[in-house]
Amino acid sequence: MPERESFTSPESGHEYSFIYLPATSPSNPTLLFLHGFPSQLNDWAFQIAYFSSHGYGVVAPDLLGYGQSSKPDDAAQYRLKLISDDIYRLLDHLDLPSVVGVGHDFGATLLSRMVAYGSTRWSALVFLAVGPPQMGTPFDLDMVNSMTKDFLGYELLGYITWLGGDEAEEAQNALESHPEAAMSLVFPADQSVWEEWYRPLGKMKQFVTEDRRVAVGSWYTPKLQQHHLDSFARKDGYKGAVRWRFKLGTATGYVEGMGAKDEKCAIAGWALGTSGML
């Protein structure tokens, strides 16, 4: 893994920890990797090694609130528009006018919003785990959980009620107190455990606070596990994670719908044909 660098956005004052490996040839594209929840740039280690060894450029930041990047207290600082602006300034700092965007989970949501706010920057887009959610419409968490409870027998996003609701501060403290329990649940060898312990209402809280364990996936190597614990098993390790959940989420805000105004402005400003990228 290359050495970390740091960049402070001149507009927000937020500091971002990132790694950058230039492309070996001007004809080779650079890939921008945007991680999800709960993660940090080290989780891209295999992708960074593979693509850089084939001559591609690579940029991978710890997103706001994660890893070694700034962790503001104010959840309003985690609006996707503000984070998008910060990442664009990072790309300007690295003199990268065009990149391939690769986003996973919340990183995929951020990527879709970055495209909406500055679509000429991108030569290609890769969305992992989730696609671009609908813009400009607040996300109705209760409706989704009620609908999926009726259809699946369990709430699909029940864990967000704990992470992003009135218990968010309690959730942060529990996750930081029982980081190995949380890690095993989020990166399990058998993802069917999510249907019992992650997705249904109240079950992630029970799993973490009771300090339970399931087997971690073999692909999540001991080295990756240690990087994860170095980031999350400490005070404020999960601060950004719960604040992203509280104010942001897929469409514009799991709980409070923040970002809808930003997104409606972006939609209004699109030129004909631009929206086809989303």
TrEMBL record:
Keyword Hydrolase in record: yes
Domain AB hydrolase-1 positions: 29-220
Pfam families reported in the protein's UniProt record: Abhydrolase_1 (PF00561)
Keywords: Hydrolase
Source species, domain of life: Eukaryota
Molecular functions per Gene Ontology: hydrolase activity
The UniProt record lists the keyword NAD: no
InterPro entries: AB_hydrolase_1, AB_hydrolase_fold, Epox_hydrolase-like
PANTHER family noted in UniProt: EPOXIDE HYDROLASE
Family indicated by similarity: Belongs to the AB hydrolase superfamily. Epoxide hydrolase family.
Listed name of the protein: AB hydrolase-1 domain-containing protein
Organism of this sequence: Clonostachys rhizophaga
